[in-house]
Each structure stands twice: as structure tokens, then as C-alpha cells.
Amino acid sequence: MDRLTKEVKEYAKKCGADLVGIAPVERFKNAPARMSPKDLLPSAKSVIVVGIHHLDASVELGGEPSPHDTGPYDIQCTAMNPKLDDIAFLLGRFLEEKGYITLPIPVTNIWRYKGYKDLKVDFAPDLAHRYAAVAAGLGEIGWSGLFLSPQFGPRQRINSIITEAELTPDPIYSGKPLCDKCMECVKHCPTDAFRKEVKRINKIEIGGKIFKFPDTNKWRCAWAENFALSLDLKIPEKVDEKVILHTMEKYGRRGGEAGSCLKYCMVPERRYYDNKYTSAPHRRKEKLNVSAREIVNKIKEIAKENSIDLLAIGNKSDFKSHPLVHPEFHLPDAESIICLGIKEANEENPDFKGAILRRLNYVEFEIGHYLDIIGYSVITRTEIADDLVARQLGVYEGDFCFTTVLINAKLPEIAWKVKKEKRAKIEKEDLRRFSKKRGADLVGFFSQKRFEEFKNNILKTKLLSQKENFYIEDKGYIYGPYIPEIKSPPSSIIGVNFLYF
């Protein structure tokens, strides 16, 4: 492995990737036009593929009692997908700083539903991440059409980064077969997509290996997952765009779904069952030799690094007689309850709460992911009443946002809160260093006086009338009266996104 490849892999792991593989562009020779690395970046030489492991319990316990009841599976959208996009972006910037043009591909959430020009593929992403993962030596394609890794089965999200850097490729996976055609994906598919309207059996060659799986009708497959139609409706024998639109108009949308093909799949070497816990297979994993105190210290470290203001850990016995909070309803073998809180410091900014919730989503996943990787069952994004959990643990404050993580490890009870420091003078260089540490490339400052001059010059152009409130953000748009006026003028403003203080 050359030095640059080693640096790329180490940096990807540092950013949070569980899986990292490298594929040469030659392994994509069978990709359709507009979906191959060289169609997207003509100078491409390598594709980096990164993956993040799903929390096992979020897959095993999500989608109950109906696939529409996604519950903890939602961590995929609230944390995993944004985190994967962050990793891809950071890797792209890392390589561009070394002189290599690099193109991060977003996580696949939106497809071209119909073929476009010379692209004859429906439901086509920019690049098929699942095939890229195979080309990068990370695993195989199963009968479900999902990517399977030997470590996690189908339980990972995948992203790809195309680069003109010539990196050392990983060998194609050559271990034990990862799909034994158990057909659980077929039995549990709520739209019967693996038996109805199957066009043929796909035969796809990647790196000298051939993978076979049903070529399903993606309109049928997307009935609930993409178009949010109810799975309780009678699904016609033939599903196409016209049927989807007609059903949507007649019945409306119910909601998305947790994919049953993912839920009920697990590679043979790691598959086992406990029907009292869940109908889905468990993933066999080993508990690492980490003490309870070490776990608590790591959780505190994650909380501190991510600007969490409050952390409490309680025991399931704390909720034994609670009328409204039952941890075992959400995680059957729950032992400890983790409460995380962030103070809502700026109620006047409508975007501030969204930023807090995004941060909480990230942190609960980071903590859950750490616990999962060292061998525990852990769940987030439940329907548990977060405020009631905080009250029961004695840490509730009215101006905080809370979230809850449940784990089947017995941990020491703690209540930790960031100490308030005396207000000190803020130095520009401190803010600049802080912002760059968090990923900003450019950090600039301007005074209220300069802002007022800018505002007056804009008003002179007649783009805005004097009566309109004035608000600007870095996306280049000027917003009108529906943005609340800043009640007290800021003394300074910091970008990249404007921060008033």
C-alpha cells in the first residue's frame, strides 16, 4: 500500500468510517453510461468507498409492528446519511489539498426515476454505491440486491468518492459466501417484489466475479419506501408510474418504511435468532473487554467534543414504577438510560433549534455506534418521552432540548453538566481557530458599523423597500418581511454562516 492510500484510509477512519475500500476505475467497465466514475469525472483513476454500520437494534427493532413504524430506524436519515456525506466531503477536500481533483457522491436518497438521454436505467443513482463497495473489495451482492459485508451483513450505509489520485486498490472479496439464499428477503417483502413482476435474473460482473439476483420492478419496490403509500392497501398485480400517481391521489400518503429486505437479512456466519426479542435475525458480535468506567468516560468524551451541555446516566430500576416511561418497551434488555441535553440559548433564531436537534442526532448516534461496536445492544430515536426521562433522572431544565439512548449494559449512574464559566473577552483568533477546527476554510469578521453601511447601500439599490425587515445569509439570497427583525443590533458577525453576538 502506498503512502497516500494509507493516509486516505486512516483519515476516513478518523472521520468515522467503519469500512474503507479502494477500487480502480477499470472495475466499473460494465457500468451504464452516466453512472461510471469516468462519466462523472473524466480524469478519475480510483473510487474510495466508505461505510458506516447501522446500529443493530435500530434494524432489528425498527419497522414494528408495521414497516411504516420506522422508529429507531430513522437514525439512518437523521445522522448516518449526513455523517456519510460529511466524510465524503472531508475526504474530497483532503485529496484536493494534495492536488487531486476529487468528486464526492452524495448518499443515495434521490434517483432518476426514468431513464435520461443515453441512460437507459430507471431508478438510477449517480453512482451505484452497492456495486462500488463490491468493486472496492468490501463484500458481495446478496439475493436481495443489497450489498453485504462480512462484518455487518447488509447493516451499513455506503458512500463513494471519485478521485484522480491513483490509489492502491483492494483485492476483490474472496472469503466465505455472504449470501446462502435463505430467502428471508423474499418471504418478508411487503410488496412481494422478489416474486411479482420480476423481469429476469440479473447477472452482474464486478472484478471478475458474477453476482445473480432478481431484477425487480422498482416501482413496486418503491411503493412505500419512496412514495409513502400504505402497505395495507391492495397492491395491484402491475405497478407503474401511473398506478403510483393514481393511488397517491386517491388515498394520499401514509409514510415511508423500514426496509424488510434489510431487516430480515444477515450473513450466515453472524446470523442467529431470539424470537422473544425480535422476529429479525440478530448479528453475532463479541463484547470487547471494556470496563463500565471506561465506557462512561468515553461517553463523556463524546459529549464534550460535541458541545453537549448535560449528560445523565440512570438505571432501569429508576423507572420501575414510572407510569409513562418503560425502557423495556423500546429495548427489551435495557439496563441503562442515557439522557443528553443542549441548552436552547437563542430562542429568537428560528434555525437554532434545528441546529440543536441535528447536533443531538449526531451525538446520540456517535454514542450508540461506540456502544454497538464494542458489543452492546443500543437504541436511539425511540418514542420515549425525553423530557420525562430527564425529570426522572433529576436533570430536567425547561430551556433544554433532550434525547435518550438505551443500552443493555449496566453503567454507573452519573449526572454531569458543563460548568458555567465567567464571561470573558472573545478574541477573533480564538474564534477563527475554533471554526477551522470544526471544518471551516474561511473565517471573517465585520463590525455592526460596516454592516449598517452595507445595508444602506443595498437599500439605495431599491432591491428592498425601507419598510421591509433586512436579513441576509451566506447563500446569496435576500429575505424580505417574513424574516423576524433582529431586536437588538449585533456587535459583530462571524461567517461562514452568520453568527450574531
UniProtKB/TrEMBL annotation:
Domain of life: Bacteria
Keyword list, A-Z: Iron, Iron-sulfur, Metal-binding
Occurrences of domain 4Fe-4S ferredoxin-type (ranges): 169-199
PROSITE patterns (alphabetical): 4FE4S_FER_1, 4FE4S_FER_2
Presence of the UniProt keyword Nucleotide-binding in the record: no
Molecular function as annotated in GO: iron-sulfur cluster binding; metal ion binding
Name assigned to this protein: 4Fe-4S ferredoxin-type domain-containing protein
Species, as recorded: bacterium (Candidatus Ratteibacteria) CG_4_9_14_3_um_filter_41_21
